[in-house]
Amino acid sequence: MMRIILLLPSLYLLLAIVGCGMDQRTKTLPILGSREPVSKLVNGDTIIDTLYHRIPDFQFLNQDSVYITSHTFDNGVYIANFFFTHCPSICPTMQRNLLKVYEKYKGDERVRFLSHSIDFRHDSPSVLKAYADKLGVTNDQWQFVTGSKADIYGIADSYMVYTKEDSGVPGGYDHSGYFILVDKDKHIRGAYDGTEDEQVQLLFNELEILLKEYE
User: Which of 34, 61, 188, 195 is the most exposed place for a label (fewest CB within 10 A)?
Assistant: First the structure.
């Protein structure tokens, strides 16, 4: 059975906060991941600001054999996850659950979806295209991407999710089942177990809260 774990303990602790609910007075989601104080001069005064973890720039090949970049997701929020097309365990459940979110927001330019295949050998653009079609994705709002092992596994680290080649598990790849909610500034605002109905409902709820920040 594939493990559903996060790469960094710090994010796991922050998820516990999210699970308890956000501050009802402010109705905003926390920014997850590392942060560090930075000082800057403003009108001659030294101000301490906070530098938050963010998803770095990227470029991947999608199901239509077109390169997409991090700028593809500018001016909106998106939900990212990691999977592979012949996954025999958690991926079918994850993708069916993410499809529910896609179907609700289909045609809504504020919300996009990004699924990274961790099988860089088998999941070519044509394989990803057939998978997307079978799943029921009919527009470019949901991108399915492939890339080199270094690029895919490196970006997984940035999302703070677990991915690994492992010949000892079904399918040959081990990975977490989290959906990662990313805001317009490429900050991580939530992480949800894509195999659990309650967590998927939490994603629905918190996605609406995040969208309201931009109204």
Answer: 34
